[in-house]
Specification:
- The protein has about 675 residues and is mainly beta.
- The chain is about 5% helix and about 40% strand.
- It has two helices and 47 strands.
- Strands 34, 35, 36, 37, 38, 39, 41, 42, 45 and 47 form a ten-stranded antiparallel beta sheet that branches. Strands 23, 24, 27, 29, 30 and 32 form a six-stranded mixed beta sheet that branches. It has a five-stranded antiparallel beta sheet with strand order 1-5-4-3-2, with no helix packed on it.
- Strand 7 (about 110-115) and strand 8 form a beta hairpin.
- It starts with 15 loop residues before the first strand and ends with a strand.
Length: about 675
């Protein structure tokens, strides 16, 4: 099939992964996709559109090499890199830029890759074959093209009896048996007089093999793809069905015919996919069965909407009628496959949406940044189907969005009125003050705790709850194991080998209006830490799950063991709180000493300012805009009393990632560890 130019793409030297949603490949243009199933994976062999280099026709199709991609689930695609370039083809022009639609099949453990190119001598196209021991190569091209095949868009069918047939575009759509070596045609070649081009001398006759496929409709046809399903053979092909008279230029459909024989004659049945609605002239395709479902791979110019000579591969599900005919396939943005919730889900590639939703490219120059969806008003919604939450155990939401300040959107389950999974509030202000009333141009990556975790596979719905928003993607992540819940009756623990205290009762964060940590002076902190936030705050010994009233907030205490020497308050707030930044954290722990321990010092580090009390007495203040540094502040000499000691702290922070670390050290700075923590 005709190929498309495009940006010259730097070849990947390492494996890269592209994700689901149409189009499926996001770092280069891909067209003319042939999909095959090998070793329980789908392998994708597309052509590779590039921008024509200087000296080549700038408004025409241009392809210099091939990549191969693979997937086990149709949502995650691995690029195995370049498998063949025009410089490696012995019989082809090294600057032909005519490596159009390919195919690959397996027989007796060997992989045969068929591809077109411009030959070194003569005009037109020839088709060659390269072989490999693995579906991703490396492929070794044969020294000569296949004799008797003059054309483009090869497709090979290996029938149930092991016989192989090749089909191509050239003087119509032709087909022929292949010999067992998969590199030569069966039967005699025929002399065919080639048509004379205006202004050029007569061409000598060519030796052509095979036969023209009969029973197909009039009109331009190319790109044959043949497959067998049950007793039926299907010849599918791009077809221009519209009126081409008087300079009209109708675009291609995908059409098909059926037969009980691999070489026809064929009974034309109709359309698989209609013309692209945006006027993209070409389409090219393949159909493959994978894990009991049939899929159509095709191309569209989603990432080059003003130029239909740069295409990208898309996928849709295919279904058949009882008589074997194919139901017409409608192109979608969502594509196919079940996304893991941990993948980046491009929500703008939605399944269904309210009528006011629009999508547009994020960047019209670097189009591979993909799309954004605009939800213009309260009540706007978009739905993305088939997301698997089975791997989310302790999750939170990450979202890339832009919006006016003080607007809000929800991520829901199943419908626009469904259960709320997470709430996101846009409260960020720009350096120059609040965002304008129109959409901000600043993309923000935000996080939000989950209010509810769905089970299994479900549909996601984003609803606008305030002013309009633009949204790019959402993703759900599992938190690293920062804390372990302390069960009731748990045995006491000791400090770790370096003396750090890891068991704490933590109160969910208290909201603070702090825009900058530069306010953390001694005077300011003295007022902040002496304020009464809740009843008995310097005497209370809370229990797991106990609730405490703080102003308008009702907060809960959590008994936790930190997995790290530094207690990550920010991660605690992500999981348990409504406030991650601009927070005041309270922590309490109980220490049991077997004897009096005089002349010890409390050594502390905290991200944010902090105040520390031992047995109700203030012993240390860390002021200023702190970063968490081990032993950043050290108290005067203290005595840990025999029996119970209560250590409390309050950590306050604005925009930073709050945490702290604390231990007791002796006169020489060595950690004190001969006590237990309740």
């Amino acid at each position: 099939m005709r190929k498309t130019p495009l940006f010259n793409i730097v070849l990947c030297l390492t494996t890269t992964v592209a994700t689901a949603q149409n189009p499926i490949i996001r770092d280069q243009f891909t067209a003319d996709p042939t999909a095959r199933v090998f070793n329980n994976k789908v392998y994708l062999y597309p052509s590779h559109d590039i921008v024509p280099p200087e000296g080549q026709r700038q408004d025409w199709f241009c392809m210099a090499d091939y990549h191969v991609f693979s997937s086990e689930n149709l949502t995650e695609w691995t690029d195995h890199g370049m498998i063949l370039s025009q410089e490696q083809v012995p019989w082809g022009k090294a600057d032909g830029y005519s490596m159009w639609a390919p195919d690959c099949v397996e027989k007796n453990g060997k992989y045969y890759f068929y591809y077109p190119n411009a030959p070194k001598s003569g005009r037109g196209f020839a088709i060659g074959v390269a072989t490999a021991d693995h579906p991703e190569g490396p492929f070794t091209p044969e020294a000569e093209a296949i004799k008797g095949v003059s054309g483009i868009d090869p497709c090979v069918l290996i029938d149930n009896d092991g016989k192989a047939y090749i089909y191509w575009s050239g003087m119509g759509i032709r087909g022929a048996r292949l010999k067992d070596n998969m590199k030569e045609l069966e039967g005699r070649l025929q002399e065919v007089k080639m048509p004379r081009r205006e202004g050029q001398p007569d061409m000598p006759p060519m030796l052509v093999g095979g036969q023209q496929m009969e029973g197909l409709p009039d009109g331009f046809k190319e790109g044959p793809f043949v497959f067998r399903r049950g007793d039926w053979y299907y010849l599918t092909f791009p077809w221009v069905r519209g009126d081409t008279s008087n300079g009209k230029n109708p675009t291609e459909t995908l059409a098909y015919a059926m037969s009980k024989s691999p070489l026809g004659p064929w009974d034309f049945k109709g359309i698989i996919m209609a013309e692209h609605s945006n006027g993209c002239w070409t389409n090219h395709h393949s159909l493959v069965e994978f894990k009991g479902e049939w899929y159509l791979f095709y191309h569209h110019n989603d990432f080059s909407p003003r130029d239909d000579k740069r295409r990208s591969v898309c996928i849709e599900r295919v279904t058949f009628n009882a008589d074997g005919t194919i139901r017409e396939v409608k192109p979608t943005m969502r594509g196919v496959g079940v996304n893991k919730a941990t993948e980046k889900i491009e929500i703008d590639r939605y399944s269904v949406a309210s009528t006011d939703i629009t999508t547009q490219l994020i960047d019209t120059v670097n189009t591979f940044r993909s799309y954004q969806a605009s939800l213009p008003r309260k009540g706007s919604w978009i739905q993305y189907n088939d997301v698997d939450f089975s791997t989310i155990t302790d999750g939170y939401l990450v979202v890339c969005a832009k919006a006016n300040a003080n607007t809000e959107f929800f991520v829901r389950e199943k419908s626009a009125k469904g259960k709320v999974i997470a709430k996101v509030t846009m409260t960020v202000k720009s350096e120059n003050g609040p965002f304008r009333r129109d959409m901000s141009e600043q993309w923000l990556t935000l996080t939000a705790p989950l209010e509810y975790t769905p089970k299994g596979i479900t549909n996601l719905v984003v609803t606008c709850e305030g002013e309009g928003i633009c949204i790019d993607w959402v993703q759900f992540k599992n938190r690293p194991k920062y804390f372990t819940v302390v069960p009731a009756g748990a045995s006491p623990m000791r400090p770790d080998a370096l003396g750090f205290i890891r068991r704490w009762m933590l109160l969910e964060p208290i909201k603070q209006d702090i825009r900058s940590n530069v306010v953390f002076t001694n005077t300011w902190l003295g007022e902040a830490f002496s304020k009464t936030y809740f009843k008995d705050q310097l005497t209370l010994l809370p229990k797991e799950g106990q609730k405490t009233k703080v102003g308008s907030q009702t907060l809960k205490w959590h008994a936790l063991d930190s997995e790290n020497y530094n207690v990550k308050l920010f991660r605690f707030a992500e999981k348990y709180g409504q406030q991650t930044y601009g927070s005041l954290f309270w922590a309490v722990t109980v220490i049991d000493c077997p004897e009096d321990m005089p002349n010890v010092r409390l050594a502390v580090g905290s991200n944010g300012a902090s105040q520390w009390w031992l047995n109700g007495e203030k012993v240390l203040l860390l002021e200023g805009d702190r970063r968490m540094v081990e032993d950043d502040g050290v108290s005067p000499r203290l005595t840990l009393q025999k029996g119970r000691n209560v250590l409390r702290c309050a950590v306050i922070n604005g925009p930073g990632l709050s945490d702290f670390c604390v231990r007791f050290v002796d006169e020489k700075g060595n950690p004190v560890t001969n006590y237990t923590i309740q």
